[in-house]
Amino acid sequence: MKKRFAFLPILLFVNLVSLGQQYSNLSFSPAQPKPGDKIHFEYSNKGTVLGNESSFDAIAYISDGQVRAQEITLKTEGDKWIGNIVTNDSTKVVFLVFKKDELIDNNKEQGYSLMLFTGGEPVKGAYIAEADFINGYGSFLMQLKSDPAQSLSLYNKEFLRYPDLKSKYLASYAGLLLRIDKSTAKEKIQPFIDELTGNENKTEADYQTLVNTYQRLGEKEKSDNFKKEAFQKFPAGNLAKGEKLNSFYNEQDLKKKQGLLKTLLKEIPSKTENEKITINGLYYSMASVAAAAKNWTLFKQYASHVTAKEMLANSYNSAAWTLSGESLDSKVNKPNLILAKDFASKAVSGMRYAMEHLKNKPTYFTDKEYKKNMNYSSGMYGDTYALILWKLGLKTEAYKVQEAAVKAMDNNNQEANERYIIYKEKVKGVNAVKNEIENYVKEGKSSPKLKEMLKKAYLSGGHTEAEYASYIENLMKEYRAKLKEEVIKKMITQEAPKFALKDIAGNNISLDDLKGKVVVADFWATWCGPCKASFPAMQTALNKFKDDPNVQFVFVNSWENKKPEEMQKNADEFIKKNKYTFQVLLDTDDKVIGNYGVEGIPTKFVIDPSGNIRFKAIGYDGSADKLVDELSAVIDVLKSGIVKE
């Protein structure tokens, strides 16, 4: 008799069918739509972060095996906003989000969603589609909070209805179990692995499942053994092809990579669209490695085979940036600058063509979002081109190109802003930049360098140092007031998951110990570049509040995939080497980072004295001043009691 397998006891307690999500400010019609139906919705922004906004965007994400973004035309009907979502015959679930600049109503990070139905039940795969969206695309598209336990429940519902889906999603299921509790994950997944392993007629998909599952469980040897077995049984299969592609992309030696390219080009035809995309990627990778080796002849040779304009523009810009010396102060010989100018010009024109045609837009972006992203890239490429023009002595041309570049980036790139002001000052004079730098200061987009230039311009008008001090303080007051308003709009109220961890000195620290304080919890890892780039600013913020007994910073080291003692040693060495005064807590089993639903690091949470998460910030944009100012504003708002807990 074939052995049966049940994933978790929780299966006994979940409902087979959820009749759809109910929201107090959002309703769908029909409530149980079929794939292919047009779904009408009514939305009220009252009581949400968009409550004071008179206009905003609505985007629906259709999950049908892919994620497809759909920009919704909103109309008003009384005090409601109405719109329609168009589904297709393969739609399993739709998610809806409402946005205005940095403000986003995503149902308090839980998402507004609606499953598609057939015969009175959610379509096959709907529960898994919802779980996968929340834990994947939903994180960066809608800022949804990942909830492994909730996702596990959705998977269990699906497996009860359709046991045949277990093998297909085993690796993802193992990943969820690991995020919830590493110590019990293998025990819970092992029975089904054994059943799959014992199948004498394993398909390539079965092997792929076993390889991926053992990789998730951290058992490399077993994963590699099944991979080898699959290669022998399916030498021309997807696993074998994937392994060759991985070897190619990981290889950074130019000559070895050339050899691998020849082999792959013989094995991969260029007939289907996917095959063409793969070959495009091969040439793009070759061009990147040639550029890293500064072999510009080979770079041009491989770049000429890249047909995707966005990829080609990126290749040319990266090469041009390297040749430019990457800063105003670096010295570069004229032949390199001339070659850089040619590459930069190709990058700018290639991006312009791509923006006009939008041929390679990912399905998960709306046209508006994709154009905005491409516009920013276009600004970056213009910034590179302007730097090269400046170094070639073409000052006025460089200034004009840079002016367009910072506009394309909406003045959100600090280094580009600095170069723009420097160019303009040289071309137009010191007084021509004063008003623009003032605006940068008031918008929180300034830098120490720009403030120095503003001081120079201000003092050149006959003002004293004392007058300047008062003048800059007034500008900063205006900025801080605006920042405080923005911070209050973005504040949330969610109960902070409890934690009890050891710090690198071996002390036990729990969230309960910190009750009554404003807590800044920064999740990071020693391998994370953006985390480490943000740390000087975090040290500045910590120093600002170090004497305040009501404020506590903790730096939660996670996702290291190392033994606890090695994790402690590495974190300790890193902190001491860089002379940071951080209190580092060790999340050795990644349970805390999972409980907080972190999808990318660095992620910072600000927790109020009552133990509620009030603010969340993901990533680091490179502006130290902005990071310090934003955290300071949040802390000050919470301490002042301006917002209710």
User: How many individual β-strands?
Assistant: 19
Structural class: alpha+beta
Q: What percentage of residues falls in helices of 4 or more residues?
A: 40-55%
CA radius of gyration: 27 Å
Describe the global form: globular
The biggest beta sheet is recorded as: 8 strands, mixed
Mean pLDDT comes to 90
End-to-end separation in angstroms reads 58 Å
Tally of helical segments:
23
Order of strands side by side in the largest beta sheet? Answer: 12-19-18-15-16-17-13-14
Q: In what range is the share of β-strand residues?
A: 5-15%
Q: Which regions have little confidence, pLDDT < 50, spanning 5+ residues?
A: 1-20
Please explain how this structure is put together:
The protein has an eight-stranded mixed beta sheet, with helices on one face. Strands 3, 4, 7, 8 and 9 form a five-stranded antiparallel beta sheet that branches. Strands 1-2-6-5 form a four-stranded antiparallel beta sheet, with no helix packed on it. The N terminus is likely disordered. The longest helix has 26 residues. The protein contains 23 helices and 19 strands. Strand 1 and strand 2 form a beta hairpin. The protein is globular and about 85 Å long. The chain is α+β, with helices and mostly antiparallel strands. Helices cover 52% and strands 14% of the residues.
